[in-house]
Design brief:
GO molecular function, one term: proton-translocating NAD(P)+ transhydrogenase activity
Number of strands: 17
Keywords: Cell inner membrane, Cell membrane, Membrane, NAD, NADP, Nucleotide-binding, Translocase, Transmembrane, Transmembrane helix
Distance between the termini: 38 Å
Main location: membrane
Helix content: 25-40%
GO cellular component, one term: plasma membrane
Enzyme class: translocase
Strand content: 15-25%
Bound molecules: nicotinamide-adenine-dinucleotide
Radius of gyration: 22 Å
Number of helices: 12
Order of helices and strands: EHEHEHEHEHEHEEEHEHEHEHEEEHHEE
Structural class: alpha/beta
Length: 378
């Protein structure tokens, strides 16, 4: 079968779903690959690199969609792209079915099969190699620290030089899931003093192992909801948390917020008052902008200065590291294709008896198969 890689069309999206390194591996499984000309441009991957890796470059998106049996993409398809899906074809990309009911309907009407990389059952250990949410969150957490360092007027690490003594920067990280932990590790590697907080107690050891200090809220309540994710906390907890965060805001040079609760708006953790209490020149990077932001003063997609504090609400952190994120995403998708083609004969089999594949498959030959049935209790 033929795998097709179109150029992403979402404004500002710089990733590409397959980088040249992966193409020989797909060939080994028996697939040939066609790539839309320019698909890798924004990630600094040239058409020539694809050709050198063994892919065929075609001039436009229509050529990719009509010539391929399997389409690998990053962003959920636009309306126009969805109309290119055809019977017998399989699409693998982000879809976010819960947020995109209209898209699900139009894709189903096309009678194709759709695998949503965001619907992977993440708790299956076998699924980890396919987990693009984790790899993308890791890139975002790293990039958030780089953005903070870029906007901050001092070194991260402490230095003693002939020109004087420089104290290390103090970084506070709110929410220590995948992105937050990547930020802890990156900021600690750069020499900052790093503190982090999360409502899920289990992450404390991970924060420490990456070089940070875990700061607790003085209130007994566990924050784990279902599937390893967070829940909305009680009023009492939130009040105690605000008091602790107010202390951290006064002390920190940089705050990076990553806190999310599935299906809910992002918890507001950094108030306008806390921003006002920060030192001039401090930086906040709010990674929860798309879900409304963790900071009251965040403007999603923008960097603004308020009360002398730079507040960065970029929602395209992964595209700001497009080559890295494309490389990791490509590997995640390659692993999906590998799982779909255990026979290594260049033909995929969407096996609904396989837990990981069942979770990923949101439309099978035109029939909506999302949400999947709850896992069997053994
Ligand atoms: P996420 O992006 O939904 O949330 C980010 C973090 O914000 C979470 O750690 C959450 O606890 C925290 N948070 C939410 N509300 C908060 C609040 N009010 N105050 C402070 N922190 C708050 O989560 P994620 O990073 O995608 O993943 C969450 C967890 O899911 C991971 O840490 C991991 O343990 C689990 N997970 C498991 C697997 C696996 O088992 N293979 C794979 C991926 C993720």
């Amino acid at each position: 079968q033929v795998i097709g890689v179109p150029k992403e069309t979402f404004p500002g999206e710089k990733r590409v779903a397959t980088v040249p390194d992966v193409i020989p591996k797909l060939a080994k499984l028996g697939f040939s690959v066609i790539v839309q000309s320019g698909a890798g441009d924004a990630a600094n991957v040239s058409d020539d690199a694809y050709v050198a890796a063994g892919a065929k470059v075609v001039p436009d998106a229509a050529g990719v969609w009509s010539g391929a049996d399997i389409i690998l993409k990053v962003r959920a398809p636009s309306k126009d792209e969805a109309n290119l899906l055809r019977e017998g074809q399989t699409l693998v990309s982000f879809i976010w079915p819960a947020q995109n009911p209209d898209l699900m309907q139009s894709l189903a009407a096309r009678k194709g099969t759709v695998l949503a990389i965001d619907s992977l059952p993440r708790t299956l250990s076998r699924a980890q190699k396919m987990d693009a949410l984790t790899s993308m969150a890791g890139v975002s957490g790293y990039r958030a620290v780089i953005e903070a360092a870029n906007a901050f007027g001092r070194f991260f690490n402490g230095q003693i030089t002939a020109a004087g003594k420089v104290p290390p920067a103090k970084v506070f990280i709110a929410g220590a899931g995948v992105a937050g932990l990547a930020a802890v590790g990156t900021a600690a590697n750069m020499g900052a003093i790093v503190r982090a907080n999360d409502t899920r107690a289990e992450v404390a050891d991970q924060v420490v192992s990456l070089g940070g200090e875990f700061v607790k809220v003085d209130y007994q309540e566990e924050g784990s909801g279902g599937g390893g994710y967070a829940k909305v906390m009680s009023e009492g907890f939130q009040k105690a948390q605000r008091e602790m965060y107010a202390q951290q805001a006064k002390d920190a040079d940089i705050i990076i917020t990553t806190a999310l609760i599935p299906g809910k708006p992002a918890p507001k953790l950094i108030t306008a008052e806390m921003v006002r209490s920060m030192k001039p020149g401090s930086v906040i990077v709010d990674m929860a902008g798309e879900q409304g932001g963790n900071c009251e003063l965040t403007e999603p997609g923008q960097a603004v200065v308020k009360h002398g504090v730079t507040i960065i609400g970029y929602t395209d952190l992964v595209s700001r590291l497009a080559k890295q994120s494309s490389t990791l995403y490509s590997t995640n998708l390659f692993r999906v294709v590998e799982e779909l083609c255990k026979t290594k004969d260049g033909v995929i089999n969407v096996n609904m008896d396989d837990d990981a594949i069942r979770g990923l498959t949101v439309i099978k030959e035109g029939a909506v198969t999302w949400p999947p049935p709850p896992p069997k209790v053994s």
